[in-house]
Structures are given as structure tokens and as C-alpha cells.
Design brief:
Layout (H helix, E strand, L loop, with lengths): L1 E4 L5 E7 L4 E5 L21 E6 L21 H11 L4 E6 L1 H12 L4 E7 L12 H9 L7 H12 L19 H8 L1 H4 L2 H7 L7 H8 L6 E6 L7 H8 L5 E6 L6 H4 L1 H13 L20
Parallel strand pairs: 3-4, 3-5, 5-6, 6-7, 7-8
Antiparallel strand pairs: 1-2, 2-4
Helix pairs in contact: 1-2, 2-8, 3-4
């Protein structure tokens, strides 16, 4: 574990894994310690991962002011971390809610981004959110699963505000509900700062019009990777998010849910490395299309 100091004095912890060119990683949750990301499908064999524990999570310290858990307040944490690591430019990977923070960072510090990878991103920074209808439509794709009959009514009741979150529908977040997925969910409570997570998306965190205007000037390549079975975002919503970037491509991982590196590590690894290692201006893989091409996932 290594540490640096945020502009307000909060101690931030980060974890280095692997060798090679640095790949800076922001976790989601929101406000879940970076440990849940594991080895991201084997990326440390190819890149030196630097995984940040956001303030108040994992090995990072609690801030003096809980209001600083709001997503936009942490943009300068990321900038201070980059400067501490001595990176003039960086390849930045962000998962889920962490992608909202990455978008705000890219909008404020576009010159620091070399390549941006948004993995099953929450696009709230762009004024987009997965709807209950999105999540139910994705859930219906799992109708042949043995756990579906019990899980679907519970998911529907939660989305309607008629019931609390229920672990019975956790399988919908994974492409494969196996021992690895169960272990991943079992670790979640101790890895997450729930109070901080409630503040992450607080009112005022996002100004979508200003963010879109700033991102329109981002020249760095962007990869938006969605899971075929994920409800937040569904591939269609991921494509809408990608349209905010002038140089973006969309990949849809077959059979994947919200944690694609767990569902098919080899596919995830090959696709992310193809993006990271592509020469500037290289053509997209023939099986995929630029953002806005309109082909369903």
C-alpha cells in the first residue's frame, strides 16, 4: 500500500499491482474499496495497476468533512494522486459509479488523459441514468435461470419502491451466478462505506450540460464497455453515453453482467488490452462500431 495527500489533507491510499505501463483505476460502488476489483481479469500481467481507495474507503482515511464524499469534490483527489505518481498523462480505467468521477475528471483535466476506459459505467455525470424499465428488461433475459422465479419479483418490488434491497436478486448483477460471484457479493458489505455512498450522488454533484461541453473537446480515445446482460447500463444506454465523446468506441461483452472481468476474464482482458495497445488512429475491430452507429448489443 502507498499513500498520498488530498488537497484538504485527507490521506489517500492506493495499491500497486503488476508490471508495465501504468493503468490508473477508480473503483465504483459507489464508495467501495478497490479490493473488489481483484486483478481485473489478469491485467497486472500486462500493466502496472494503481488502484485508488477513495476517501473514506479501504485503507484511505475518513475526511474531516463528510460533504466531500460528493463525487465532484473528489476530482481534485484524483488530480493530486496523478501528480503524486508523477504521471504527465495517464491511462484511466473506471468502473460503474467510478466512471462518473472519471468523466468529471476528464472534463476538468482533459490534457491529463491518454486513454479512458469506462467499464459498465454509471453515466450520471452526463445526465443519464439506468431506469427501472432498463433493469427489468435486462433481468428478463435471465428467465431460464433456476433462481429467476424467486429473484425477479423481489427485484421488481425493490425498483418500484415497495421493498428493501434483497440479496435474492444479486444474481442479476453477474453474468454467471457461481462460487466466484457469491464470494464477490459476500465481501461487499465490509468493503463499502454506505454513508459515503449515499452522499456520492448528492444534489449538485453534476452539471451535465457543462460536462458534455467540456468532454466534446476531449481528444483522447475512449472505450465504453458494457455487459450484454447488465441492467445498469444496458448496451443501449452505454452507446448514448459514448456519444458524449468525440473519439469513443463501444464494446459489448457477451454474457456479461456488471462485473465483466469476473464473467469472462479472458474476453475482458483481450478487449481492454486491444484498446490500450492500439496505435493512435487505429481502426476499430471489425466486430464493433464507433459510438452512435446504432447497432444493438
Amino acid at each position: 500500500m502507498s499513500t498520498c495527500t488530498a488537497p484538504d489533507g485527507t490521506r489517500l491510499a492506493y495499491h500497486l499491482r503488476g508490471d508495465g505501463e501504468p493503468l490508473v483505476v477508480l473503483p465504483g460502488g459507489p464508495m467501495r474499496a478497490s479490493a473488489y476489483l481483484g486483478d481485473l481479469g489478469g491485467l497486472p500481467a500486462h500493466r502496472r495497476l494503481a488502484l485508488l481507495d477513495l476517501r473514506g474507503t479501504g485503507d484511505s482515511a475518513l475526511p474531516a468533512d463528510p460533504a466531500t464524499y460528493r463525487c465532484d469534490h473528489m476530482v481534485e483527489d484524483v488530480e493530486a494522486w496523478r501528480a503524486h505518481m508523477g504521471l504527465e498523462h495517464m491511462d484511466l480505467l473506471a468502473h460503474s459509479a467510478g466512471a462518473a468521477l472519471a468523466m468529471l475528471y476528464a472534463a476538468r483535466h482533459p490534457q491529463r488523459i491518454r486513454r479512458l476506459l469506462l467499464i459498465t459505467p454509471n453515466p450520471s455525470a452526463l445526465g443519464l441514468r439506468a431506469t427501472p424499465e432498463d433493469r427489468l428488461a435486462a433481468a428478463r433475459l435471465r428467465a431460464d435461470e433456476p433462481w429467476f422465479a424467486q429473484a425477479f419479483p423481489a427485484l421488481r418490488a425493490w425498483l418500484a419502491g415497495e421493498a428493501d434491497f434483497d440479496d435474492v436478486f444479486l444474481p442479476f448483477f453477474y453474468g454467471r451466478w457461481d462460487d466466484a460471484a457469491r464470494a464477490h457479493t459476500d465481501a461487499e458489505p465490509e468493503q463499502t462505506n454506505e454513508m459515503a455512498g449515499e452522499r456520492y450522488f448528492a444534489e449538485g454533484a453534476f452539471t451535465p450540460d457543462a460536462t458534455r461541453t467540456a468532454l466534446a473537446a476531449l481528444t483522447a480515445p475512449v472505450l465504453v464497455l458494457a455487459g450484454e446482460l447488465d441492467g445498469g447500463p444496458r448496451p443501449e444506454l452505454a452507446r448514448r453515453a459514448a456519444e458524449a465523446f468525440p473519439n469513443a468506441e463501444v464494446a459489448v461483452q457477451p454474457g456479461a453482467g456488471h462485473y465483466p472481468w469476473l464473467d469472462d476474464p479472458e474476453w475482458f482482458l483481450q478487449r481492454t488490452l486491444a484498446f490500450l495497445d492500439a496505435p493512435a488512429g487505429a481502426a476499430l475491430p471489425s466486430a464493433e462500431q464507433p459510438a452512435g452507429a446504432g447497432s444493438p448489443g
